[in-house]
Amino acid sequence: xxxxxxxxxxxxxxxxxxxxxxxxxxxxxxxxxxxxxxxxxxxxxxxxxxxxxxxxxxxxxxxxxxxxxxxxxxxxxxxxxxxxxxxxxxxxxxxxxxxxxxxxxxxxxxxxxxxxxxxxxxxxxxxxxxxxxxxxxxxxxxxxxxxxxxxxxxxxxxxxxxxxxxxxxxxxxxxx
Length: 176
Fold this sequence. Notes:
Elements: E1 5-7, E2 15-24, E3 30-35, E4 40-44, E5 50-52, E6 62-64, E7 73-81, E8 84-92, E9 99-104, E10 110-117, E11 122-126, E12 134-137, E13 143-148, E14 158-165, E15 168-175
Antiparallel strand pairs: 1-6, 2-3, 2-7, 3-4, 5-6, 7-8, 9-10, 10-13, 11-14, 12-13, 14-15
């Protein structure tokens, strides 16, 4: 979320027609088209963050900026060129970084929270813990994970929370 993404079509010369068909998981469909013989570009139902990378007459690539959760879906480039018709489809999944926080609960135990990540973050502890992380699923596809440190038979008041996510690896020390 928040980054920039470029999707490319097959690299062909003598292109006569390029059409991007975008079917987001939520919301309406969008079409970007370019007809080379008339040097004519059309745009139908596309949000402002979906554009040609540098103009369809120069490059058939599509740019999404900024990438949003609503950007998830299927992106298909259809191209007609002198040597045939070509199609390429992308299935876009958007990663959402969790917001990580550590704190001490009312009993003085270390707690680690990875809020609103997609996919759900994994939480582990150093030293090891017998904790069972709790997950709260949100309607937008994000998940909050909460883990309370449980010392393996010892009363440990200091630990490191290790949060793992495809877009993040983080180690947070906490002393209670």
